[in-house]
Amino acid sequence: MKISSQTRSRCIVLIAMMAAITLGSAFAVVWTKQQISRTAQNAKQIETDLAEMVRKISFLDQRIATLHQPVVLQSKVAGRLRPSMENQIVWVRERELPSGRAYALAEPFEVTIDLAMLDAHSPR
Question: Would you tell me how many other CB atoms lie within 10 Å of the CB of residue 102?
Answer without folding.
Answer: 13
